[in-house]
Design brief:
CATH superfamily of one domain: Alpha/Beta hydrolase fold, catalytic domain
CATH topology of one domain: Rossmann fold
Radius of gyration: 20 Å
Largest sheet: 9 strands, mixed
Shape: globular
Order of helices and strands: HHEEEHEEHEHEHEHHHEHHEHEHHH
CATH class of one domain: Alpha Beta
Helix content: 25-40%
Strand content: 5-15%
Oligomer: single chain
Distance between the termini: 56 Å
Structural class: alpha/beta
């Protein structure tokens, strides 16, 4: 297997250095980071550093606004705060800032803005990558929320999250219920907790996940890291005109989200793939696969013996969503292969305080349209602003 992988690397590397892959001129936004994008679109951006209880050093961005209540944005799996900025004047972060909101954008441990630790080196210490969505919810979110509230002098904030970012919040609010009182409202876009009704290709990936995991060398603890070979391949190939449409959209990872090509035009792909993906820990993927296999929203399964040590049970416990008492506004789409409507409806029945429940009118609305759709200002933001105003 190692020999085959080595030859694969050689072949791919040869292809990338051939005349087939001559880098095209990238759009300016593909080369700018969060701070630079904010400045380009007319806003001052502050960079803040947050240290979690377990030593991870996170980068937090702020675009100050006249409104008193802070709005905290959290990204999904394999993403970063850039997700809320890449559409420029049509992006959520800029649109909120234009309306005078005090916008804060977080970055979970491991992505290129939060690739630091007080003791661990992400390049040499496997322990740095020993986390899943649980740690992002249990450690990262409370550290960020407490920092924002202390910096602003407010007692509570409004929050918006996408995909796994919503899962992080469900972990936090069920594990540390006192944080429910620190949220005026939590807007969950394409929420994920239960993965009972997945359809191909995601369901197939879930079924073969354990087999794929066995094929990956035990020394691999991270995937699509900014310094990894596979990330370099994606950034080069998926920013090529024509090639990106075929390999990175039609045949690539985006169909898994149920994307609508009308909202993800070809000219935007170089910008998207210059910033995404932003690293995924192997343990995070394994945790997701456990949810699919067990059909439970549960803690990480370490095996019976280790589970007994950590949880006091041979089987990992479920997160108790009845403890999630914060006001929650749910937004979801019909054409979403990850946050399936039936799973969202089941999640709704378990959450005690769902104050808004909104199915997007557009039939083709997909998982990634909530952050990358080219018509968000017309189709999504009016509803988001309405919720923020109502629960301010």
């Amino acid at each position: 297997m190692k020999i085959k992988i080595t030859w694969l690397v050689i072949l791919v590397n040869s292809a990338l250095t051939s005349s087939l892959f001559i880098p095209t001129q990238l759009p300016e936004d593909a080369t700018l980071n969060y701070t630079q994008l904010g400045v380009k679109y007319g806003h001052k951006v502050e960079e803040h550093t947050v240290v979690t209880e377990d030593g991870y050093i996170l980068t937090l961005f702020r675009m100050p606004g006249k409104r008193k209540t802070p709005v905290f944005l959290m990204h999904g799996s394999g993403d970063s705060s850039d997700a809320y900025m890449l559409r420029g004047n049509k992006s959520m972060a800029i649109s909120l800032a234009n309306e005078g909101y005090d916008v804060w954008a977080g970055n979970g441990r491991g992505n290129y803005y939060s690739r630091r630790h007080v003791k661990l080196d992400p390049d040499t210490d496997p322990s740095f990558w020993d986390y899943s969505f649980h740690e992002r919810g249990y450690y990262d979110l409370p550290a960020i929320i407490d920092y924002i509230l202390e910096a602003t002098g407010e007692k509570s904030l409004q929050s918006i999250a996408h995909s796994q970012g919503t899962m992080n919040f469900f972990v936090l609010l069920s594990s540390k219920p006192e944080y429910n009182d620190k949220l005026k409202v939590f807007i969950a876009m394409a929420p994920i907790a239960y993965l009972h009704n997945l359809i191909p290709p995601v369901s197939i990936i879930g079924e073969i996940g354990p087999f794929i995991n066995q094929l990956i060398p035990s020394s691999v603890h991270r995937i699509l890291d900014i310094k990894g070979f596979e990330r370099s391949v994606i950034e080069l190939v998926c920013t090529q005109e024509g090639i990106s449409d075929l390999f990175c959209v039609t045949l690539g990872v985006l169909p898994a989200s149920g994307f609508d090509p009308k909202r993800l035009e070809s000219s935007f792909l170089p910008i998207l793939f210059s910033h995404y993906p932003a690293a995924i820990s192997r343990k995070n993927l394994l945790h997701h696969n456990q949810l699919i296999s067990n059909k439970r929203f549960m803690h990480y399964d370490y095996g019976p013996k280790e589970n007994m040590k950590r949880y006091g049970f041979a089987v990992p416990p479920e997160y108790n969503l009845r403890k999630v008492t914060a006001k929650i506004a749910i937004f979801f789409g019909n054409n979403d292969n990850l946050s399936r409507p039936r799973d969202v409806e089941y999640l709704r029945t378990l959450l005690p305080n769902v104050v808004e429940y909104h199915l997007m009118k557009e039939k083709e609305w997909s998982h990634i349209d909530f952050i990358y759709g080219n018509d968000m200002p017309e189709t999504l933001f009016p509803y988001i602003f309405q919720v923020l105003e109502k629960y301010s």
